[in-house]
Design goal:
Porin, 18-stranded antiparallel beta barrel, 5 helices
Length: 456
């Protein structure tokens, strides 16, 4: 997969570069970052979490570099090629690609081939960067992602956005070479000049691959059609996948209300759910998910953005219970965990989505130390003072384990983090960060870091 992907990116780069040179509309950019850390035991939670898989708990430093070329093919079309890599300790392997992709975009379609981060720094204060299924806790998955380039109008004030993607989980996992099907759909309502409402659905399904227990999983075109609509498998699927849905399905509903410049304040109010099966689709696990409000005072520099999120994953449609319908089970949604795909919703051992769900894998699959039932209160702030920009986070978390292996008493943490950045014109950006994690039964994790970033 990696060699084929690299070859396709190379061919696209050469062909497009030739076209771009004819029009003389090529721009290049790049950058390098270097960070060093000191900690008493391991890095605090928000220092290494949601860093696109670049840092681990035991990391002491990293170097990250990227190069990007933008080709303007015509008035309405462009192609971007980006390659980036990271070197750090505390993670094996110590040197990896970060992103490697080609992105083509015109007035109606946006296609990405390769490994590109799903989220960016727009919502850095959020626990999930406003995407409960992906956040930014792992490296970018390799695959192809297709979406519309601009909202598609249905009526005067109503439009929609949609995307579909295919990824491959090429890491060391229980089911080798697991496929990932992804799609989303968002309906947008521009209520008036300052208010809008966005309602959407995300759907992810793990399918195919080879299991050491049950062998090759169904991976034909007809199986992909069943994955797409969430129907049961055929005779070549396991009994559970025949009775329920083929593959391992997860998804999320989202609702976001945006108000712009209301008496000098912009704000968003949003909710993102989680579902694993029919009970979650029918919202029997309500109010599990991420609830948030983000406020941006338009005239304030000290507080450019303030955020509060309440995160809950404790309902899961209730405790597991048997029902009389062919051996199915109700309740116990067991977020990000599956019996066939025992590595769960992870990539390289890290949870892909909501980071409070900590999937710990073992030779038998999910380990007893796994946690997917949590309650969290999270606040964040960003702004500037003097010549400094800053980011601050404070989180209170209660981890209850799983229904099968509960934590009694519950495990309670406080995660704190502060980062200051000093931009210096023509030189770069210098940064310093500090974090501390508190727990009654463990020593406080404390860490500091310094960094430098230069882009051109």
């Amino acid at each position: 997969m990696g060699k084929r992907l690299f070859f396709m990116l190379f061919v696209m780069s050469v062909c497009t570069k030739t076209m771009a040179q004819e029009q003389e509309t090529t721009t290049y950019s790049g950058g390098v970052e270097a960070f060093g850390y000191l900690s008493n035991e391991e890095l605090p939670f928000w220092t290494y979490t949601n860093t696109y898989g670049r840092l681990g708990q035991d990391s002491n430093g990293l170097v990250y570099a990227f190069a990007k070329a933008d080709y303007q093919l015509s008035t309405n079309s462009s192609l971007t090629i980006k390659a980036s890599g990271v070197a750090r300790d505390g993670i094996d392997p110590s040197v990896q690609r970060a992103e490697l992709y080609a992105n083509f975009k015109n007035s109606w379609i946006d296609v990405t081939l390769g490994s590109k981060d799903v989220t960016d720094n727009t919502y850095e204060l959020s626990t999930v960067r406003r995407n409960i299924l992906f956040s930014s806790n792992t490296r970018a998955l390799p695959g192809i992602f297709i979406q519309n380039a601009a909202p598609i109008k249905l009526f005067k004030n109503i439009s929609f956005d949609a995307a579909i993607a295919h990824y491959i989980l090429n890491d060391d996992r229980f089911v080798d070479n697991t496929n990932v099907h992804y799609k989303n759909f968002y309906l947008n309502w521009d209520i008036n000049a300052t208010s809008s409402l966005h309602v959407g659905l995300q759907h992810v399904a793990q399918w195919g691959g080879r299991s050491p227990v049950s062998g090759d999983q169904p991976d034909g075109l007809s199986d992909l059609a069943k994955i797409f609509i969430g129907s049961g498998g055929g005779d070549n699927a396991s009994f559970g996948d025949q009775v329920n849905a083929l593959g391992n399905h997860i998804g999320s509903y989202s609702v976001t209300y945006k108000k712009r410049n209301s008496e000098g304040v912009d704000f968003d109010v949003y909710y993102q759910s989680l579902f694993e099966d029919r009970s979650g689709i029918e919202l029997n696990n309500f109010p599990d998910g991420v609830w948030g409000v983000s406020v941006s005072p338009t005239s304030s520099k000290l507080f450019k953005k303030l955020l509060y999120e309440y995160v809950q994953t404790v309902s899961q449609s209730g405790r597991p219970r048997a029902v009389q319908n062919g051996g199915q089970q109700s309740g116990g949604d067991n977020y990000f965990i599956n019996g066939t795909y025992r590595s769960g919703w992870t990539y390289e051992g890290r949870t892909i989505g909501l980071p409070f769900i900590a999937i710990t894998t073992s030779s038998e699959g999910i380990a007893p130390s796994t946690n997917n039932r949590s309650i969290a209160h999270h606040i964040g702030a960003s702004g500037s003072f003097w010549k400094l920009d800053y980011i601050a986070k404070l989180t209170y978390v209660e981890n209850l384990g799983t229904y099968a292996v509960p934590r009694s008493p519950k495990d309670t943490f406080v995660y704190s983090y502060f980062k200051a950045l000093l931009p210096v014109e023509k030189i770069g950006v210098f940064s310093a960060e500090i974090g501390a994690d508190f727990n009654d039964d463990r020593d406080t994790s404390f860490g500091v870091g310094v960094g430098y970033r230069y882009t051109f």
